Each structure stands twice: as structure tokens, then as C-alpha cells.
Amino acid sequence: MSFFPYLVAAWLFIIGLYGIVTSRNFVHLVICLAVLQSSTYVLLLSIGYRVGGVAPVFVGVKVGTPAVDPVVQALMLTDIVVEATVVALLLALALQLQKHANTLDPDKLKALEG
Amino acid sequence: MSTLAPLPVVIPLSVAALLAALNKFLHRRISEALSILATIATGVVCGELLLQSQIQPVIHWFGGWTPRAGVALGISFVIDPIGAGAAVFTSLLVLAALVFSLHYFDTVGTLFHVLMLGFLGAMCGFTLTGDVFNLFVFFELMSASAFALCGYKVEEPESMQGALNFAITNTVGALLVLSGIGLLYGRTGALNMAQIGRTLGGRLDGLVITAFVFIMAGFFIKAAVFPFHFWLADAHAVAPTPVCVLFSGIMVELGIYAVLRVYWTIFDGPFAAHRWDLRALLLTVGTITAVIGAVMCFGQRHIKRLLAFSTVSHVGLLTIGFGVLKAGALAGVALYVVGHGLVKAALFLVAGLLLHRFSSVDELELHGRARNLRATGIVFFAAALGLASMPGFATFRGESGIIDAAGSIGQGWVRAIFFFSGVLTAGAVLRVWGRVFRGMGKGEEAETAGAKKIKEGRETTQPSYGIPAVMFAPAAALVLLAIAIGLAPGIKNAARTAASVMQGRAGYQARVLEHAWVPVVPAQEENTPMGKGLAWSFATTAAGLFLAFLSLSSYWPRKHMLTRPVAVAVRGLRSIHSGHVGDYVAFLTFGVAAFGVVLAALVHLH
């Protein structure tokens, strides 16, 4: 198992943050957040990976066959569900912003300074 | 095994689902009654669990997956007095918010109650769980309900901006927590907190420090600790008042709760030899947060935003309480959270009353307009004194617990931070009281050091001539309760025992993994004389009153010598609170990196 997947996870985390910091459009920004989320998917899957392991379905395999860790896969699935909810909610908020303020640019919103 | 344990999550979530499904058919009054009944039932169950947990922590393994030979595979609730106490307190504040909103939202749909119950269920699960991934899931459920509640007034662009800032920063925080949990799982192969703590033992290396920094920073974002606090004022300024009560009263404090829980179950072993390094970091961060929050609080004219910055300042004090890393300080933190939550909730409810009655929460616009609301004014004034930790309030018991524990490790200087924060936040609230309820000082033409007026939409549609009882009663009841807890005998010892249970890592592990329990005997503390604490506390209150009087008075010669430095500091700080989510996430990234580098350097040096 190489350290390469961890580099990918770190890279996704960093470019996600970079996208959020520099974004000029809330829809784009929410998608950057989704990129940040995919970093956690890669991280969790890499942690559970075993070299030469089979998928964790234990029907018709010999006892003692190495398998990848099913727990992190369950965590990742939960993570996807939770974050899909959050992204949907964020996009709904962005939609309302467009409707009532006629802009999606964080730079153009000045009401909450100071 | 306790069959009651899952109910604090099951009751609110199932009633929420029922209300959501029957949204179209139920009369508004019926859904209000159902949600209030569900909240009361949750509170009663949590109270019973609190009583049971006095003997030993209550454990519930879902699906009967009990640990075999000391290895936990199932998901558990581990209910100790601090967790159960937090759940009781949550139910109480949700009840107050729901009663207040009976008259508040005339146009509110059933969905408001669905979200409030979801919020309640998530917060209860968050305080009761013993599994770190479960903690993350409840954290996200709590956050998602909170985002939707914050952006409830969809037709206002400010609301959407505040909710988006809140949601984006907090989601980044949740992802940091999840990454930290992933790293811990990679090292220990466990998700149960007791199991992780036992497997990790005392080993401290780069991976453990990284996991700790990710998890702590993620929860500190929710707790609004500097430099992660920017979202808080925006969210409070736009959220409906009953929601602000829950944000400031308990949600933010649950961020601190989570750090405490994770630290004492998992990371205390690895950091046992490096407590002073961690103390240095936490006391510094807490001090900065307390000072910035207090200064910004004094520089606001929007009452809800002012109260929000006061919360930032008090969270700084709680971070100091955590940073002392002592049982006495933890007991103090618990009492302070309760005392602060009660008076802050009352202050927000009064702000909501003003918005209902006068369609404004702008301090200058409201100048003298609430002169006739005598009783409301008294509640507001009393709550402000509670904010200054005046003796008699629960905040005073908490404050003295934290300061005494800090003094016992030679860090008595934190008293000065409590004094500074108390004077500025109470001074600001008392200034509002003087201007709005007594008509002192000037109105719109007053000097504000650049504070902008923020539009606040009405939340009620009926004409408002009087003060509805359901809006006034919760505020008054919360202040009275803060005084009752402040005067209750034996509360300090109960809090100390609860704190010792939370801190006893070996006892916690044995209880969860082997089902064994050794009663905790709280460490004896030397009896610190009350006199000094009392004197300081009265001095804080007096200085707060004086500051409020000074800022309202026009006769005071050379007043500018005192107010100008504050105004300069406020202007400087104001410029970094830009309302721009990109700036907030940039500060957040910097903060996480700085935490990690400083902590790693300190650990490496010693």
C-alpha cells in the first residue's frame, strides 16, 4: 500500500479549500465544498484498503481470505448521505439568494459587515 | 442496559417525522401542542437518565452488540451526569423557544417545529453517545437542522448570506472532524471512544497530533473560538429569535462539550506528559477569543449581533476553563454553560419581544421607546447582571470554579480576562438597557464607531399593542432559574463529582468495555476563601454599570480619553469581520495550520 492515495486526499482537501476561499459564485463554492468532501471519501477508503484483499462479501470465500475493511466503507456511505443532504440544502439557500438578491457573488453582499 | 437510553433521540425524531408527513392536514395549534409535548417528554426522560447516571454511567448497546472480551464492535450510548445534564438543559431551552414561538411566528409553518425537533433529537444524541462516528453523524444532523433554521426567513437576502456563511464554515469543520476520526480509526481500528482511548494508550506521534488538531479545530468551529468565530455573529443576526436562543444557549457550547469529551476519553493519555503545552495553547486561544468577542460586542448597535459577540467572548472563557485541564475547572465550565445559557437565552427572548413590539432590534432606533415595558426592562437588567457573573447567579458559581482551579496551578491571571470580558459584555448590554428601556443617552445621532444599521424583518404579522404572556414568561422563568441554580446548595459538589466522572479515563473504559464500575471519589480541593471572588465579582458588575453609564452620559468631561481607544480597536477589528465567506474560510485554514504547527512545535521541544 503506497502513500499515494493519502497525497490525493490531501490535495483534494487543499484545492477544495482554495476554491472556497477564492470563489465568486455560491453555486461554484458549494461544488468546491463537494470536492473537499471527496477528500474524506478517498481518505476513508485508503485507510481500509488491504493489498490483495477481496471485496468484503463473505459468501463462497475460504475462511482467512484477506478482505478490505467494510467498516470504513460503511462510514463513507454514511458520509455521502450526510453530505448530500448538506449540499442540497446549501444549493437551496443559494437559489433563494439568487431569487431575492439577484446575485450569487459573495463580494456583492455587504449587509453583514462588522 | 437501560431501555430509556435511546428515547431522547427516538421521541423528537419520530414526532418530527410524523409532523412532516401530516404537514398538510394538521392544524397549526395541534402541531405546536405535539412538539411541546414531545419536548417535555424528552426532557423528563433525560432527567430520569440524569438521576440514574448519578450512581454509575448508564450504558446502552444498540441491537445488543455488547463488547466481547473487552472489544467493542457495537454502537453505544454512554450517559454520564455531564452528558445527561446537557441533554436536560437542551430540552429546557427548546421548550422555552417553542413556548415563545407560539405567538412569535404567525406565519410559521409546521416545518419550523419539524426542524426544531430534529435539532433537539440530534443535540440529545450528540451529548449521550459513546461512539466517535456516531458523534460525527449527530453533529451533522444538528448542523443541517441549524442551517435550515438559520435561513428560515428565505425572502431576506441577509438571511441567506448569514445561513450560507454559517453552513459553509461549519461543514468544513465537520469534514475536519471526519478526517480526524478516519486517522484515529486507521491507527486503532476502533470507533468506540473508550476502545480508542485504551488502544491508543499513551503514544503520542505525528498522526495522533494531526488527528487531535483536526478534531479539536472542527469542534472549535462550531464553538466559535477565534479564529473560527466569524460565522457566529452573521448567523445570529439573521436567525429567527427562538433559534438564536438555541444557538447561543446550547449549540455553541456543545462544540466545547465535544472537545472535552473527546479529550478526556481519547487524547488525555497521549497528552498526559504534555499537558502544559496544551494548556499554553488553549489558554492563549481562549484569552484572544474572550478579548476580541468583548470588544466587538461593545461596538455593536444591532442587539442580536451584540449578544452574539458576547457569546463569542464567553466561549473564550469556557475555552480557558477547558485549558486548565482540572476537575474543578471542568465543573466550573459545566455550571458556567448552564448559567450563561439561561441568561443569554432570556436576553435573546427580550430582543425578540422588542422586535415584535417595535419592529426593530436596533439600539439607537429603539432609543427610549420601551420606557413603558417595566417588567421586561427588569428581566433584561437582571439578565445583564447575570452576564457579569454577579454573585447569586449560576455564572458566578461557574466562574469561581474555573478561576480557583486556574489559581491552583499558578494561572491566577485568568481572573483579569474574566473581569475584562464581564465588564465589556455586561457594559454593552446595560448600555442597551439604559438607552432602550430608560431613554438615556442619544438616539440615532449617537457616536457608534462605524457600526452599520442592519435591516431586520418583522417576524409577526398581527398588530402588537401589548406584550403577550407566552413571550414574556419564558424570559422571566429562565432568569429566575439562573438565580435558583446560583443559590442552590450542593450544586457545586454535584458538578465536581460529574466532572470527575467525565475525567476518569480508566473508570470510563472499564465501565464501557468490561461493565465494571468503581465509584469516583472527587479529589478534595482546598477551600478557597469566598471573599476575594465575591469582591472581584461585585467589582465586575459595578465596572460594567459604570461603563454603560459613561457611554450614555453626555456630561462626562474627557470621556473620549476612555472611549477613543475602544473605538479605534473596534474599527480595526470590524474590518476583519467582512461578512465574506471566503475570508472566513481563509482565517479557518490559517487557524487549523497554526494550531497544528504550534502544538507540534511545543510537543517536540519538551
Q: Short description, anyone?
A:
The complex is a heterodimer of chains A (114) and B (606). Chain A is an all-alpha fold. Chain A has helices at 4-22, 26-48, 70-101.
Question: Would you write up a description of this structure?
Answer:
The complex is a heterodimer of chains A (114) and B (606). Chain A is mainly α and 114 residues long. Chain A contains three helices and no strands. Chain A has helices at 4-22, 26-48, 70-101. The longest helix of chain A is centred in the C-terminal third of the chain and has 32 residues, at 70-101. By secondary structure, chain B is mainly α. Chain B has helices at 7-21, 28-53, 81-104, 110-128, 132-150, 157-188, 193-200, 206-223, 230-238, 241-271, 275-298, 303-323, 327-358, 374-387, 394-408, 414-437, 469-487, 491-503, 505-514, 530-552, 560-576, 581-605; strands at residues 58-61, 76-79. In chain B, strands 1-2 form a two-stranded antiparallel ribbon. The longest helix of chain B has 32 residues, at 157-188. The mean pLDDT of chain B is 86. At the A-B interface, α1, α2 and α3 of A face α5, α6, α9 and α22 of B.
Briefly note the structural class of the backbone of chain A: mainly alpha
Strand content of chain B: under 5%
- State the distance separating the first and last CA atoms of chain A: 49 Å
User: What's the total count of β strands of chain A?
Assistant: 0
Q: Evaluate the radius of gyration of chain B.
A: 23 Å
Order of neighbouring strands in the sheet with most strands of chain B: 1-2
Task: Give a topology summary.
The complex is a heterodimer of chains A (114) and B (606).
Chain A (H helix, E strand, L loop, with lengths): L3 H19 L3 H23 L21 H32 L13
Helix pairs in contact in A: 1-2, 2-3
Chain B lengths: L6 H15 L6 H26 L4 E4 L14 E4 L1 H24 L5 H19 L3 H19 L6 H32 L4 H8 L5 H18 L6 H9 L2 H31 L3 H24 L4 H21 L3 H32 L15 H14 L6 H15 L5 H24 L31 H19 L3 H13 L1 H10 L15 H23 L7 H17 L4 H25 L1
Antiparallel strand pairs in B: 1-2
Helix pairs in contact in B: 1-2, 1-4, 2-3, 2-4, 3-4, 3-10, 3-13, 3-17, 4-5, 4-10, 5-6, 5-10, 6-7, 6-8, 6-9, 6-22, 7-10, 7-19, 8-10, 8-22, 9-12, 10-12, 10-13, 11-12, 11-16, 11-21, 12-13, 12-16, 13-14, 13-15, 13-17, 13-18, 14-16, 14-17, 15-17, 16-20
